[in-house]
Specification:
The chain has two domains: 79 residues, no CATH class; 137 residues, no CATH class. It is 41% helix and 24% strand. It has five helices and eight strands, in the order H-H-E-H-E-E-H-E-E-H-E-E-E.
Length: 224
């Protein structure tokens, strides 16, 4: 009988400890979620004028949801991701430079920081910043990015490239239209659809790359 009582006490203690651990993780997770949502609303809804758009608290929590989903995808991407035929663009930015980029958004996001872009197994030094006129480009987890290399080390023949995150799914119709125009034999800009990762972390966003007949060494090439 005493052995049964001692066993039950030990089980009760183990369950109590497990519940404490679960409660701590839940509190930390909920606090992080609330901080992310309110911080997004404070920066882009109060501190920054998002006109003509309106940013509410609900938008902040949508962004918090997106970050949770993004973190889950990053953790499972290597195990469960489907193979893709899209060109992969790998950007590398040190943690200190990333911190500078995010120090005081949105203003800090438009200041170039040092980074590099991978091409044929070699690192090409580059400067990186966010770009775009509206908060859809740089207020979310998936941001539009501008990369600028040295004149002596171009990326695929280009010096300045804009990687533009599609605002809506309808933006991808541009890519379909260009494909159709090419099949019809019409003159089109060079274009491609690629995926972008920063420090090995996929942005999970399709980008559509174009070069609108500009001088590749001086004019930016856009990518959606």
């Amino acid at each position: 009988m005493l052995e049964l009582i001692n066993y039950c006490r030990k089980r009760k203690l183990s369950i109590y400890r497990a519940l404490n651990v679960v409660m701590i993780f839940s509190l930390v997770g909920m606090s992080t979620y609330l901080w992310t949502g309110f911080n997004y609303f404070f920066i882009y809804g109060l501190k920054f004028d998002p006109s003509p758009y309106v940013v509410g608290i609900s938008d902040g929590f949508k962004e918090a949801d997106a970050k949770i989903i993004g973190s889950y995808r990053s953790l499972t991407s290597n195990k469960f991701s489907r193979p893709t035929h899209l060109t992969e663009v790998d950007l590398f930015i040190s943690p200190s430079e990333l911190a500078r980029l995010h120090d005081d958004m949105p203003g800090s996001g438009f200041e170039y920081v040092s980074g590099s872009i991978l091409q044929d197994g070699k690192m090409i030094p580059a400067r990186v910043r966010y770009r775009g006129d509206f908060l859809y480009h740089w207020s979310h987890e998936k941001k539009s990015i501008r990369v600028k290399t040295k004149r002596s080390a171009l990326y695929s023949g280009l010096r300045t490239i804009n990687f533009i995150a599609p605002k809506t799914d309808e933006t991808l119709l541009n890519y379909s239209g260009l494909l159709l125009a090419r099949e019809m034999g019409l003159i089109t800009p060079e274009f491609d659809m690629v995926t972008v990762s920063i420090n090995g972390e996929s942005r999970n966003t399709p980008f559509h790359g174009t070069n609108n007949g500009t001088n590749s060494e001086t004019e930016p090439s856009d990518a959606w």
